[in-house]
């Protein structure tokens, strides 16, 4: 009532000719009735808020990766429940989440079901779990392969259940997701509602999110994971065959050599089951065969004393690789940090 004087001073509107002659001002109410203006922000807010206070079940949530995601999604507003075949209720208690006593009953009431199980078990678990899910819910996996699991999830998830393949490019030993990469693989036409909030859930923690199709994902991972793991494990296997004393060799290592050896050791310290299953990628066989063929070719050049041929092979590889100067600069910084850390440990 006190602000009513605005109505009395409105004559400004009458005396300002622009207001009378400019019909746009009189027809402006269209903006009020235009549904796009009203509904567009609402849809966005609803999509972002979908993950808040929703029930999430992590199948395999008492394992390393499952436990990591239980903590992560709990911190982001989900009501998390875990289940594992070992029945480790103590792990759930330590995580501060519930343990599902009846797996399929929990599946039926969950808004999001995340499958964190070994790759070779994924298809069987999908067939068991997915048909029990309710319309409007989301089925996710966190396996390293995507073509097979995506096909199974789309096949067994009922109509109205969305499907989102997920591949975290890190292991459960990392303290934070910041700076890590998460690859999302939405099922075509079956992930319209949940894709945006799940992207946001990962980005909130500082992750870089990439979206790929299942075939492109597996082709990329055949190199990014299967080839690099294969190369590191083959180095370790060669050291074993040579009966080479790795520990003693550290006395004579350059920083580059020691960093490389530490990465080999990093792979060896983890699950052989996981790394063997990554080699099951249907695209990996061709990649391994190409790698072995190139190793053989380079070995023959060296054995034959063909120095020019070896040099040419290296130049051709560098030309294809691209950005070698930048790679050198980045690795120099890494070496500098490594030396700093080592010297700090010696002083400490």
TrEMBL record:
Pfam families: PDH_C (PF20463), PDH_N (PF02153). The keyword Metal-binding does not apply. Keywords: Oxidoreductase. InterPro entries: 6-PGluconate_DH-like_C_sf (IPR008927), NAD(P)-bd_dom_sf (IPR036291), PDH_C (IPR046825), PDH_N (IPR046826), Preph/Arog_dehydrog (IPR050812), Prephen_DH (IPR003099). Residues 54-332 form the Prephenate/arogenate dehydrogenase domain. This is Prephenate dehydrogenase/arogenate dehydrogenase family protein.
């Amino acid at each position: 009532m006190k602000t009513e004087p605005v109505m009395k001073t409105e004559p400004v509107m009458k005396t300002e000719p622009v207001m009378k002659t400019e019909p746009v001002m009189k027809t402006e109410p269209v903006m009020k009735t235009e549904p796009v203006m009203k509904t567009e922000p609402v849809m966005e807010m609803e999509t972002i808020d979908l993950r808040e206070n929703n029930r999430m079940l992590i199948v395999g949530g008492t394992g390393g990766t499952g436990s990591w995601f239980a903590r992560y999604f709990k911190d982001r507003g989900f009501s998390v429940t875990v289940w594992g075949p070992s029945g480790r209720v103590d792990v759930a208690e330590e995580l501060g989440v519930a343990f599902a006593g009846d797996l399929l009953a929990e599946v039926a009431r969950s808004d999001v079901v995340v499958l964190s199980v070994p790759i070779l078990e994924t298809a069987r678990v999908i067939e068991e779990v997915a048909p029990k899910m309710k319309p409007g819910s989301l089925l996710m996996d966190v396996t390293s392969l995507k073509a097979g699991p995506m096909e199974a999830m789309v096949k067994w998830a009922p109509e109205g259940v969305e499907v989102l393949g997920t591949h975290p490019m890190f292991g459960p030993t990392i303290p934070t997701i910041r700076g890590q990469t998460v690859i999302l693989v939405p099922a075509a036409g079956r992930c319209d509602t949940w894709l945006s909030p799940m992207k946001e859930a990962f980005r909130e923690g500082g992750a870089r999110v990439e979206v790929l199709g299942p075939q492109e994902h597996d082709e990329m991972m055949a190199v990014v994971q299967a080839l690099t793991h294969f190369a590191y494990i083959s180095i370790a296997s060669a050291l074993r065959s040579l009966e080479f004393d790795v520990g003693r060799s550290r006395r004579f290592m350059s920083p580059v050599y020691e960093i490389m050896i530490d990465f080999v050791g990093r792979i060896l310290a983890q699950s052989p089951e996981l790394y063997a299953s990554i080699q099951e990628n249907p695209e990996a066989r061709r990649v391994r065969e190409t790698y072995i063929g190139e190793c053989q070719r380079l070995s023959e050049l060296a054995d034959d004393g063909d120095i020019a041929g070896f040099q040419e092979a290296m130049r051709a590889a560098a030309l294809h690789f691209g950005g070698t100067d930048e790679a050198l600069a980045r690795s120099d910084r890494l070496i500098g940090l490594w030396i700093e850390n080592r010297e700090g440990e010696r002083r400490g």
